[in-house]
Each structure stands twice: as C-alpha cells, then as structure tokens.
Amino acid sequence: KSHDIPLMIDELIVSQEQPFPGIITFAKHKLIKSIENNREKVILEGQGGDEIAAGYQYIFGSFIKDLIEKDENIDNEIEKFAKINNISVEKAKLKVESGMKAIDSYGWSADCTNFLKPQCFNKKFIEKYDVKPVFPKKFKSNVLNFQYKDLFYTKLPRILRSCDRTSMYHSKELRVPLLDHRLLEFCFNIPSKLKIKNGEQRYFYREAFKKIVPKEILRKPKNAVVDPQTKWLTNELKDWVTEIITSNTFKSRDIFNEEVIKKEYNNFVKNKGNNSFFIWQCINLEFWYRNFID
Question: Which of 88, 232, 249, 254 is paired with 221 by a 20 to 30 Å CA distance?
Fold first, then answer.
C-alpha cells in the first residue's frame, strides 16, 4: 500500500545500506519478510532471464544496428516488432533509436525511456562527481556488448545487490539458477538471430518450450509487471514527496538543485510522466543521508 512507503523507508535504507532501485524493493522486502519464519532457507529467483536472452525492448536497437552494419534489411523486423508489441511502426522506430543511444550510455530503463536528469543536481556536485563510465566492448556484436554491459556493469549488479541485501536481512538465501555460468556461456554463444527473430524477443526460449506451453501464452509479448511507483509519487504520495524536497535538510545538502527539482516534479505530476526514477533518486538519497550521515 502507498501508506507503507513513508513508514518503511528508514527500515529499507538501513537494510540496503545504500540507495536502492525503487518502490518495487519495498514489495520484495515485505514478500521475503512474510516467509521469514518458514523453515525453508533458500529462495530461487528468475533474475537474469531477460539479460541472457536479449529480452528487454531497449536491446532491440542493438539488434537492428547489427543488421544495418551487415547491410541486411531491417524493415521486416521493425514492422513485426511493432505488431507483436501492439505499437505503431513510428513508435517502434523511436524505440530502436533510443536503444541505439543506450548502447554506449547509461540511464535507460528497459522500456527505452531515459531516467537521467542531471539538471536536478547542484552544478558543483555534477562537476565533481560526473565521471562517465566507459564500458568494454568484447564482441563484434552490438547485442552481445549490450548484454555484457547489462550483466556485469549496469542493470543486473544493482538488482542482485538489492535482492541479496533484502534476503539476507531476513535470514534467507536467494539463488539465481538462470545465472549459472554454464547457462550464461551457452546463451552468449547462441546467435543473435535466435534471440530475436521476426520482431520476437527471447525467440529461442519460445522455441524450446513450444511443445510444452500453449501457443496463446508462448507467443505473448513481454509484459512488465508495472509497479505503482509513478502513480503513487504523483498522487497518494504527492504531499510526502513535496515535504521532502522542500525540507531544510534537503536544501542544506549542497547536492540538489531544489528549485529545478520542484519544477521538474510539478511538471512530472501534471504530465503524468512515465519515468519516475529521477524523483525517487532524490528522495532515496535524502533518506540515506538522514540515516547514515546526519
């Protein structure tokens, strides 16, 4: 529930010991807490499944770039990607464009939206700490390089650390069998055209299970489980967010540009923006300061 967030955030900050990905972490915390007294000590989780199979929409841009570099036709793939995901071809092309930008940068969500808003931070803070990482490119394939970046540098390390902190806080051990090194190495040796084919992502998964899973389920596009973060931060938790970003401690950090943040947040609320990570970063960092520095 939305009212859990203000009540639980200090406990979450203490358990994580550093800023964490988002409100979905609260759900993970409550879920594992609910089985804290069970006899079972080990939890199996499916983290890594999309990373090893090129399952996120933003990696489709890497796939298209590989086809372009090989002078292969891309129209069929984009058109079928649009149809499968029930979007227009124009929107599919925008996702491809965003996916190509994400190859050499960071700050992109899996749905191809960018969550970085550096203008929300103090200019001196940005100048001092804005060191842009350079990710290694070990492969000729853009798809493989993107997968490598997600697995070892950006997406997965952040998620796994958060999941591990949550499970160990409740004396449980979380294991991720899909990230067994043998399975990961096997998937890295699968050609990209078997990971994405006819606009369909995780293609080899679907082929492997086509005799087991009903077709109407097997061929469904990936539907992310949408957490209520955007809705809550623009509605139920609006007063709470406003109180935080206008507080004296928030202003005193010399980290944030509070006037820009207030303006960005008001625009976000009015336009019902689709990526709330920028405001969550600010809230999260403020509570981390309150618990570990103040």
Answer: 232
**Tally of CA atoms within 13 A in the half-sphere of 40 that contains its CB:** 10
25: three-class secondary structure by DSSP: helix
- Indicate the burial class of 86 (C-beta count within 10 angstroms; 0-12, 13-18, 19 or more): exposed
Alpha helical stretches, state H, 55-202: 60-69, 75-84, 89-102, 123-129, 142-152, 155-169, 181-188, 192-195
Spatial distance between the Cα atoms of 106 and 114, rounded to a whole number of angstroms: 9
* Backbone CA torsion sign across 13, 19, 25, 28: negative
Place of tokens 């929107």: 91
Return d(Cα 73, Cα 34) in angstroms, integer.
Answer: 51
Per-residue pLDDT of the chain (294 residues; tens, 9 = 90+): 889 999 999 999 999 998 887 888 998 899 898 888 888 889 999 999 999 999 998 899 999 999 999 999 999 999 999 999 999 999 999 999 888 888 776 665 555 566 667 788 888 888 887 777 788 899 999 999 999 999 998 889 988 999 999 999 999 999 999 999 999 999 999 999 999 999 999 999 999 999 999 988 887 777 666 678 888 988 999 999 999 999 999 988 888 888 888 888 888 888 766 678 888 888 999 999 999 998
Element (H, E) at 203: helix 203-208
- Cβ 100 vs Cβ 145: under 8 Å: no
Phi, psi of 173 (to 5 degrees): -115, 120
Residue type, 123: K
d(Cα 148, Cα 7) in Å, to the nearest integer?
A: 38
User: Going by C-beta distance under 8 Å and a sequence separation of 6 or more, which residues neighbour residue 33?
Assistant: 170
CA distance 286 to 274: 22
The letter for the amino acid at 153 is Y
